Amino acid sequence: MYIKEGIYVFESSRKTFYASNGIIGLSPDSNTVYDGYDGELDSPYAITQNPRYKGFSKEEKLELADYMIELWNKYKGDIV
Predict the structure, then answer these.
(1) Is the separation of the CB atoms in 34 and 24 below 8 Å?
(2) Distance of alpha carbon 48 from alpha carbon 22, whole angstroms
(3) What is the pLDDT of residue 39?
(4) How large is the average pLDDT for residues 46-75?
(5) What is the DSSP string of 12-77?
(6) Pairing status of strand 7-9 against strand 39-42
(7) Per-residue pLDDT reduced to its tens digit, 16-39
């Protein structure tokens, strides 16, 4: 995953998405991925409410998780 001109790009699928202010968040139950403070990027609830909603594929979810883990590890490393 990488960012090009403020847009996130999945290397696995080339699918793109925008995250408000570059912020990607995860709900405490780890079921929903948000952008900014209230925009849903991926949610099992959205899929049930809107049959045309696709969400992220398994590969995209894994890629996003690896990307975020890398960011959190960098954040942690900067503290110590």
Answers:
(1) yes
(2) 27
(3) 81
(4) 85
(5) TT--EEE-GGG-EEE-TTS--EEETTTEEEE-HHHHHH-TT-----HHHHHHHHHHHHHHHHHHHH
(6) unpaired
(7) 998 988 999 999 998 889 888 778
